[in-house]
Design goal:
3-stranded mixed β-sheet; alpha+beta; 2 helices; globular
Length: about 80
């Protein structure tokens, strides 16, 4: 169960697919495709949404113990579905 030390990606509550409990602090697992969809619904293009998430969320550095959100799935520009990695 997530605790007060767990980081969450604001605005992506509907994209949570689970909690990883390995390690000191639980980590919330998000669906990448769902996160892109949320930003598209807010008016971003697919490309802008992916660029924003790559720079500001997926690639964000959080000091150890890393409680950043691990993400499931790969995005392919030509695909309309996510693929598990």
């Amino acid at each position: 169960m997530p605790n007060e030390d767990t980081y969450y990606a604001d605005g992506f509550e509907d994209c949570i697919i689970g909690v990883l409990t390995e390690g000191e602090v639980p980590r919330v697992v998000y669906d990448k495709w769902g996160m892109v969809t949320v930003l598209q619904e807010e008016g971003m293009t697919w490309e802008d949404a992916v660029e924003f998430l790559e720079f500001n969320v997926w690639g964000a550095y959080i000091e150890p113990p890393c409680t950043c959100a691990p993400l499931r799935g790969r995005l392919n520009r030509r695909s309309t579905k996510s693929t598990n990695s």
